[in-house]
Amino acid sequence: MYLKTLTLKGFKSFANTVHMSLEPGVTCVVGPNGSGKSNVVDALAWVMGEQGAKNLRGGSMADVIFAGTKTKAPLGRAEVELTIDNTDGALPIEYSEVTISRTMFRSGGSEYAINGTPVRLLDIQELLSDTGMGRQMHVIVGQGQLDAILSASETERRAFIEEAAGVLKHRQRKDRALKK
Ligand code: ATP
Ligand code: MG
């Protein structure tokens, strides 16, 4: 199983449709600052079902829709399509190629599809969940995160580990309760 193609339409800085072909193995995206490299990574997280605006580096979910520039009007919808090669059958579906897509409208509302058939978010999550790609399964290390870990103090490093282990939220809850 590997990511085969990624198509962005009106997603963040990609006003015009951009189609990327990927190969098995490691893919590098290079380009000047602000050219949209991180937006490509955001698109991957988004099409796989990411629900947190902050994880997409935005204030609200609608921030993934092309917001316009001096010369180009804003768009009304964002769409991302990811085609996964499934010739090894890693995805539990009878297709050698699986395309998942997500569309979001500025007027509100989202649509998901698997191979062109409308589905629920849950169906996408279930499809990906046993493959190491599902929700919380793939790992996206954001820009600056490695630096932050390497240069963290002991207390900060402990917080990273607690967050990874899932205990941070309980501790924050306990701290809040003790303050009351
Ligand atoms: P760096 O090398 O600095 O990390 P990068 O290639 O990762 O840069 P991105 O962060 O992917 O760059 O892209 C940033 C650009 O995307 C900014 O110019 C920002 O204005 C633009 N952008 C983000 N969201 C939108 C949007 N909804 N509509 C239009 N442009 C957007
Ligand atoms: Mg970046």
TrEMBL record:
Annotated compartments: Cytoplasm
Residues binding ATP, per UniProt: 32-39
Entry superkingdom: Bacteria
Record's comment describing the protein's domains: Contains large globular domains required for ATP hydrolysis at each terminus and a third globular domain forming a flexible hinge near the middle of the molecule. These domains are separated by coiled-coil structures.
Family of the protein in this entry: Belongs to the SMC family.
Primary role: Required for chromosome condensation and partitioning.
Record's subunit section: Homodimer.
Protein name per UniProt: Chromosome partition protein Smc
Provenance organism: Mobiluncus porci
Record lineage: Bacteria, Bacillati, Actinomycetota, Actinomycetes, Actinomycetales
Residues of the full protein shown: 1 to 180 of 1190
